[in-house]
Amino acid sequence: MAGDTVLFYAFAAIMVLASLLVVGQRSPIYSVLLLIVSFAALAGLYVLLDAPFLAVVQIIIYAGAIMVLFLFVVMLLNAPYETATGLKTGGPTGVGGAGGPTATDSVGAPGFSPGAPGPTGPDRTGPVGPPGFSPGARGPTGPDRTDSVGPPGFSPGAPGPTGPDRTGPVGPPGFSPGAPGPTATDSVGPPGFSPGAPGPTGPDRTGPVGPPGFSPGARGPRWAGAALALVLLVELAWSLWRAGAQETEALTGQLVPGTDLTSVRQIGHVLFADYGFAFEVTSVLILVAMVGAVVLAKREI
Amino acid sequence: MNPVVLVQLVLILVVFTALLMSAAVMVYAERKLAAAFQQRYGPYLVGPKGLMQPFADVLKLLFKEELRPKGADALLFAIAPMIAATAAFAAFAVVPFGGDTTLFGLLPEPIKLQVADVNVAILVVFAIASMSVYGIVLAGWSSNSKYSLLGALRSASQMISYELSYGLALASVLVVAGDLSITRIVDGQAGTWLGVLPRWFIFVQPVGFLVYMIAGIAETNRAPFDFPEAEQELVAGYHTEYSSMSFAMFFLAEYINMVTVSAVATDLFLGGWQGPWLPVSLGWIWFLAKMSALLFFYIWARWTLPRYRYDQLMQFGWKILLPIAVLNLIATAAGVIYLGR
Amino acid sequence: MTPSLTHYLILSATLFAIGTAGVFLRRNLITILLSIEIMLNAANLAFVAFGRALGNVDGQVIVFFVITVAAAEAAVGLALVIALFRHRQSLDPDAYTSLRG
């Protein structure tokens, strides 16, 4: 049927294009959004393959929940995007994104039990907040923020010349709660190990960023990676062509009598009858993953 | 042109226009009802009894300047309200609002008053509702402002937390009804018990209905769960930096989400378009009546109840509502097995 | 021409290769996780296509499990990324080479 053909090629083109852009372009936020587009096209393909229930489930779970998780993490970490000279933070315009939540509010991402929001305002001397972590660089306000600030969290604790005491490096984040002055309301960043000397503050920062020994831009094996992927593509396509050639008739042809592929009842029956054990095991897996994720991402245990 | 296709197009147009008008009506109703609850007049200057007030509001919004903060990500800033509005409209596409009708004999065969009849319709509503989270999150992120981002993240995490209870309440109804297609669920509520009490699922699933409405209110970010956009808290949350038509689109999206939640609740729990004294082809009048009752309940809740604080809100969603929804589902399933449908 | 099983399978192979390229080529932990998701979805597509071709719903059922496992893996992977980020403030996999010997 011509409609199906057009739709197939349309969805396939969208999927391939979106996936290429996910892999190929720099900003992680756009990558996540493009992947959502790709999943929507995949859901369309599932409908063409007589699996409407699966299409809707794909949208609900993958595009609606997992990608929201990715988006949250990207936003909260103010994820740096790669350029030829190293990592920059924030959006592709180079200006810091939203800078992350300040330490005065609780972010309360899902799964993080909110608890007490903690003291607000410049009196903040206690812990930074409930286990909703604060992601580090709020970035300096004012004219100090040039492009070469470096990955977040390194934006060295002096967010510009706002306080008269802050002239030198104040050390890695996590050491300045309770510092007086209006800068104390800034996010103190995640506590943790001091990752080595942060180096000079402000726009002097032109050297390599990151822990010692880290050299961004090592371009050696890149083309090898691309070549490997190409080889993989050719090999997969050839082997699947061979496998599918014998079944070419079957796609539009006879279905095994008695099965209605679109019937949810049928799916449920097979799921719970034939795959009951796998279902139970997967449930336990999801529970373990959920507990593990919360424990891993919590600030203190 | 094939008359069926033509009718479908007209139906789409009618539904779209009706949704837009319903947003306008909701704006007016909200302000008038708020005034009534607070013992004052509400809008009464613009048109007879203030009925033209929503149009005045729209005109004002149209003429406002469209602002964009300097550091905002232009593309995301522009498409975020579009995503919110599109998701809101699209979710209503699979909701049936009337029984078989031939439009008083104009048509050769009866059509259902539903833009798209999908046999997994409930899940489609749920799926598109979960896409509306993105409109909010992207709005907050792209505004390059900490209030927006915080409001957006809070709002998004609230929405996805209550989506669980929402889905479980839906699942309870599905267990009772045995079908995923909303049309068939409504048909399953035909008839009465003992000639008096209609066979609506609200009587079979009272807890489910409560869970659904509470989760629905939280999903649409309405009071008492509207902390992320409360004026006293985060300026205005994720739509702080928006003005003019973009803001209007968020507003529109919120109202249409309310309408969709009420419409789905009417279909699932209150028997849809069935009611006495009217033939099935005029059932949409009953549907409107029931939906209006639920929307009144929405507005009533907003102007009566104080707002939940954010951590109270999340605690309620995870620690109270979700276990209730799960237990309801288990009890329903047990009931269906032992008592039959 | 009407899409047959082979079309779907070639599409699946293409997506899988794109995902693999992403895992090899990208220097950002989150993008690597996204590329892994692309690969998983390519496999899902192959499952559903084969299920349709062979005429039973097992393909769809297996996709359920794959989606569930992918959700678990994404959650744990992102939690790890967050925990790692707290230590090194970097999303570059080359920054975490302390075990290199």
Overview of this structure, please?
Chain A is mainly alpha-helical and 301 residues long. Chain A has six helices and two strands. Helix content of chain A is 42%, strand content 2%. In chain A, β1 (81-83) and β2 form a beta hairpin. By secondary structure, chain B is mainly alpha-helical. In chain B, the strands form two sheets. A two-stranded antiparallel sheet of chain B has the order 1-2. In chain B, strands 3-4 form a two-stranded antiparallel sheet. The radius of gyration of chain B is 21 Å and the shape is globular. Chain C is mostly helical and 101 residues long. Chain C starts with a helix and ends in a 13-residue tail after the last helix. Chain C is built from three helices and no strands. Classes of the chains: A mainly alpha (301), B mainly alpha (341), C mainly alpha (101). Chains in contact: A-B, A-C. At the A-C interface, α1, α2, α3, α4 and α5 of A face α1, α2 and α3 of C.
Supply the key terms.
heterotrimer, A: 301 residues, mainly alpha, 6 helices, 42% helix, 2% strand, globular, C: 101 residues, elongated
Question: What's the short story on this structure?
Answer:
The complex is a heterotrimer of chains A (301), B (341) and C (101). Chain B is built from eleven helices and four strands, in the order H-H-H-E-E-H-H-H-E-E-H-H-H-H-H. Chain B has helices at 3-37, 53-63, 74-91, 121-142, 146-177, 182-187, 201-204, 206-219, 244-269, 283-304, 310-339; strands at residues 98-101, 111-113, 192-193, 197-198.
